[in-house]
Specification:
Blueprint (H helix, E strand, L loop, with lengths): L3 E6 L16 H25 L3 E5 L10 H16 L4 E4 L19 E3 L6 E6 L11 E7 L24 E7 L16 H5 L5 E5 L5 E4 L4 E4 L15 E7 L5 E7 L3 E9 L6 H19 L3 E11 L3 H5 L3 H14 L12 E11 L4 H6 L3 H12 L3 H13 L5 H12 L3 H19 L9
Parallel strand pairs: 1-2, 2-3, 3-4, 6-7, 7-8, 8-10, 13-14, 14-15
Antiparallel strand pairs: 1-11, 5-6, 9-10, 11-12
Length: 445
């Protein structure tokens, strides 16, 4: 078997509407709206530049069953570029773009193959797509099934089979949920063992937007993720895999980023910050880090402020966080030129506060108060084995009739981390009480 290379991509979601991003400047909103198309163009450019032998799309090429005409025509135009280079494409429909969705009657290049929804279909791939050439070289077998309707609840993975007696490299295209990922609809549900036993050499999966390799070799089982993040839930680099198949059916995967807009979720601590200026400069540094990491892309950032410090009271004031957010956005807008150039822009999607008041631990330790007693008990628990045993025994006495809870506490008591956990629990209780009523930490009258 000679070496060959192909691109595995999934979940293009062309023409995704990017809901929830309406209150942004026109140039930034348009950049977001166009980002799925730009990422797709980047994919086609990559395929041509790398001169791969073929490309596979594992479902959800479109964002909606009733696909927009704009998305269909863009797909047709870009796939024609691959057809001109004689690079074939193999596509299955997913839950977002099932076969029964509304679609235009378009003419597709003869190098574009949409796999059937009636049963698992197998197509032989020939070198350079020349299936009618004299003595064409077969290099792989593509197996896959499209969604006929939005929901597919059967374990169709059990229907994938190798061609009898074939030594070709078999690639299974499947849009589904392996081992029940709770973050996604459980369509085409299957277990990893089903895929391993099916006889494929490579599973080109789609549906889960998080890039992950479920199995390294024999077979290789891969989710490439989507090609363009569409919210902070899809943060980080997005793209596809270039798969190099070598002698002995070994595969080497190279991730290629394609995204035009990159999403980030970051957090900073207010601990030690003594002024609004220090906070603004720290936020600006995080934004700059995102700018540099994005390598010319536009970035969208959600930033969390956490920790305990003097500035927490400021963050609680009405309008403070919104004013800071607005100023930082305005400063970024200066980077958008009159022509609407948005490269290198870091749009601050939101500032979210999860901080707390500063706690003077040493003062509380010395206080003649309930808080002081809790903190002193937390410190003692880590050092005094007898006190630890007493606390755990009291906990188990209160668990009479709760067999499972008693079992958990008994395991905790015997663990090396038991005392440390009790200490942390006491400290946490004290901090929560102090935040609910700061006067609780004062001296007793």
């Amino acid at each position: 078997m000679s070496d060959f290379r192909f691109i595995h991509a999934a979940d293009l979601h062309l023409d995704s509407p990017f809901r929830g991003m309406s209150h942004v400047p026109d140039a930034i909103r348009e950049r977001l709206r166009a980002s799925t198309f730009t990422a797709f163009t980047n994919l086609i450019d990559l395929a041509l530049r790398e001169q791969v032998d073929f490309v596979v799309f594992s479902g959800d090429v479109y964002d909606a069953a009733d696909r927009s005409l704009r998305a269909q025509l863009r797909l047709q135009r870009e796939l024609q570029r691959l057809a001109t280079a004689r690079i074939p494409v193999y596509i299955i429909h997913g839950n977002h773009d099932p076969e029964d969705g509304m679609h235009a009657e378009l003419t597709w290049p003869d190098t574009v193959h949409f796999l059937s929804s009636k049963e698992v279909e197998t197509i032989i791939v020939y070198r350079c797509g020349h299936s009618e050439a004299s003595e064409p070289e077969a290099i792989a077998a593509i197996c896959g099934i499209s969604y006929a309707h939005k929901a597919l609840h059967e374990n169709v993975a059990l229907s994938y089979k190798r061609l009898a007696g074939s030594s070709l490299f078999h690639i299974g295209l499947l849009h589904g949920n392996v081992d029940g990922d709770v973050g996604h609809d459980n369509y085409a549900p299957c277990a990893k063992r089903d895929l391993i036993q099916a006889g494929m050499d490579y599973w080109a999966l789609g549906h889960i937007h998080l890039r992950q390799i479920l199995h390294e070799q024999e077979p290789c089982i891969v989710y490439p993720g989507n090609i363009q993040g569409r919210s902070v839930k899809e943060a980080g680099a997005k793209g596809c895999y270039i798969v190099h198949v070598m002698e002995g059916r070994q595969t080497r995967l190279t991730f290629a980023p394609l995204d035009d807009v990159r999403w980030y979720t970051e957090s900073i601590s207010i601990e030690g910050l003594e002024s609004e200026q220090a906070l603004k400069e720290l936020v600006e540094q995080v934004m700059q880090n995102c700018r540099e990491a994005s390598l010319g892309r536009m970035s969208v950032l959600r930033l969390f402020l956490h920790g305990r410090g003097l500035l927490h009271r400021k963050l609680e004031q009405n309008g403070f966080v919104q004013d800071l957010l607005q100023v930082l956005r305005e400063e970024e807008e200066y980077g958008v030129s009159a022509e609407g150039e948005t490269s290198n822009i870091v749009w601050l999607e939101s500032l979210q506060v999860d901080s707390g008041s500063e706690v003077d631990v040493e003062h509380i330790l010395e206080a003649d108060s309930f808080l002081g007693e809790l903190f002193r008990m937390a410190r003692q628990t880590n050092q005094d084995l007898d006190l630890y045993e007493e606390i755990m025994d009291q906990a188990m006495e209160s668990m009479q009739g709760h067999t499972r809870l008693r079992h958990v506490i008994e395991e905790l008591k015997d663990s090396e981390d038991g005392r440390a956990l009790i200490g942390r629990a006491c400290e946490l209780a004290a901090v929560l009480l102090e935040e609910a009523d700061p006067r609780a930490g004062g001296e007793a009258s």
